[in-house]
Every structure is written in structure tokens, then in C-alpha cells.
């Protein structure tokens, strides 16, 4: 991994109901390049909300924000939420305080999030570790390793790309064969495909791990990328950013089909208000482009582009969390209309012959 890279690597589990009960939905399963559940293909429109476990576990919270978020999301037809099931480090609010030692209160917060999501028919993708330093992440694991006397010369030596993914994936599948596993990376091409680095990486920059190599790991069930043209093509025109995103999605979907043979999803995308060119119209146009790409590739591609997760939703009264990408459905009629439209289209496509 490149030093100082902005890769966001995490192991993901597409979680369904965890106990058997008549009225609960079944697990999502993978058949070849598609997701299935209960005899039909599964497609979705979804969102990120990293903050749920922390809010639910906070002594200053009664869980009302988590409940409100799932209510608003379900009303917009969103059926998958990606959220943090990690917080590593010595802190009052962390989940894992030291290796293998957990705060029970924070686990209870996570339980609450899972229970509330289930009530609203929303499936979860639980991220299990961060590459960035936020919420502990890779730097925290490196620190723990060093304190335990292991020689870790640089953060990057903690794991090496596909070897680390392989080790983690093998372990997770040994304790749980029912949930699907993904790797939450940005999607940059790497040294296994130098031609694609030049052609398709923004400005031919190589950041993070190799999209192709990492997703070849057999236990990884689906391929995923993120799309942040505001960061990757800083200063470029909206037209250029839009064209880039279309190509980015198309190329990675094609590789997922032809090289990897796995279902594909867009794990994060968004438009930041901090970009100098930002306007609500530009954001909406960007969302439309992304949604149209997902839908049309999925339609022509036999439902193999499974869905997209916008970054990110909050509920009202959370101004201190805002990162520029925030969408508050109850205060944003134009975003809600766009999202609802896409939710309906993906739902109809899933059920179509
Ligand atoms: C939960 O807290 C919110 C304020 O954060 C408050 O408006 C609401 O009434 C509380 N709900 C319950 C059931 O206590
Ligand atoms: C963390 O917990 C300790 C012990 O309960 C308490 O004294 C301290 O104020 C807490 N710190 C924060 C930042 O909440
Ligand atoms: C848009 O992309 C073209 C072709 O890559 C490049 O020549 C041009 O400078 C870009 N324009 C802007 C404003 O970013
Ligand atoms: C909803 O989708 C339809 C059909 O694709 C499109 O014509 C319409 O403009 C969309 N509306 C919104 C608000 O996105």
C-alpha cells in the first residue's frame, strides 16, 4: 500500500436477519454475478451513515436519532445501510478498548442499531475496521502490535494487500458462512493492470490497494468501489467529473463481470458542499448521473450492478457532524425525490423478468 494513501479498506458483511423467525427476511446469497434472496434477485438503493453505533451507545442519547434515520430512509425506499461496527482504541466510547477487550455498552448500542434496522426492513453492511486513523483504524492496530513487541517498521507493513484480505476473509468465513463479505476500497487499479492505471485511474494516480488483485480472493463475495470526483479531479469541470464517474463505474463493473465473476456495487459516492463549484442543482445532476448509470448498467447487465450507497445521511439536529456531504431527508425535498425515484426503479428492476 502506498504510504499516506487515502484508501479506505474495511471488511464488510452484508447482514440479514440473524435469528430464524417466520416474518424475517432471508439472507442475501450470491449466485454467480448476482445477489438473491427468497427466490428472486436482490437489487437495492442504499446509504451510508457511519455514526449509528456511537450515537446509540452514548449516555446522552436515547436512540431517537437512529430510529428517526431508519424511518426517513425506509420512507425513501432505501433498503441497505452501511455503517461502522468498529471503534478501536482506548477511549470511553470505543468498541474495542484493547485487543479482544470490548465495551459492553457500545455492543448494546450496535445491537440497538441492528434491531431498529430490522424493524424497518433495512439490511446492514457492517464495516469491521478502518484504514484511516478515524475511530482507531489501521494506526491503532499498528500501535497495539508494537506495544506487544512485534516489529512493524511502517504502518504499511502491518498487512500486505491481498495477503491480509485473504487471511481476514478465511477467518471470517470459518466462523460465519452465511453473511457475504466485501472489501470497502476506493477501486484504484494497481500494478497487476498497469494499462488500466494509465487509462482509468484519475490522473493515472495509484492510490491504495489493487482493485483486481484484492477482489480475486475467493472468499470475497462481491466487488465494490467508491466515487469521489470532487477529490480526485479537484478543480476540473463538472462535465469532466461526470464523464469520469460514468467511465469509472462502467470499467469496474465490466472487470467485475469478466475478470472477477462477482456482483458489483458502488459503496460510497457523494457531492460535497465544500467544493467551490457546489450548488444543489449540480449535486442533483451528479446523483442523477450516478443513479442512471447504476440502473442502466444493471438493466443491460442482468441485474449484476446491485446498487449504490450514497455518502451520507443524517437527521436534523446533527450539525456538528456535517462533513459537506450530508443529506437530511426531512429537510431536502429534491434529494428525497431523486432517491425515492431510484429506489422504485431498482425495486421494479429486481422483480422484472
Ligand atoms: C429522546 O431525546 C430527544 C432529544 O434528544 C427528545 O426529543 C425525545 O423526546 C426523547 N425521547 C424519549 C422517548 O425519551
Ligand atoms: C471517561 O470515563 C471516566 C471514568 O468513568 C470519566 O472520569 C471521564 O470523565 C470520561 N471521559 C470522557 C471524555 O467522557
Ligand atoms: C477536461 O478534460 C479534458 C480531457 O481530459 C482536459 O483536456 C481539460 O483540461 C479538462 N477541463 C477542465 C476544465 O477540467
Ligand atoms: C424519475 O425517473 C424517471 C424515469 O427514469 C425520470 O424521467 C424522472 O426525471 C425522474 N425524476 C426524478 C425526480 O429523478
Automatic annotation (TrEMBL):
Taxonomic superkingdom: Eukaryota
Signal peptide region: 1-21
Pfam families on file: GH5_mannosidase
Keyword Ribosomal protein assigned: no
Keywords: Glycosidase, Hydrolase, Signal
Listed transmembrane segments: none
EC number: 3.2.1.78
Catalytic activity: Random hydrolysis of (1->4)-beta-D-mannosidic linkages in mannans, galactomannans and glucomannans
Gene3D superfamilies associated with the record: Glycosidases
UniProt KW Signal keyword: yes
Similarity comment text for this entry: Belongs to the glycosyl hydrolase 5 (cellulase A) family.
The protein's name: mannan endo-1,4-beta-mannosidase
Species in which this protein is naturally found: Zingiber officinale (Ginger)
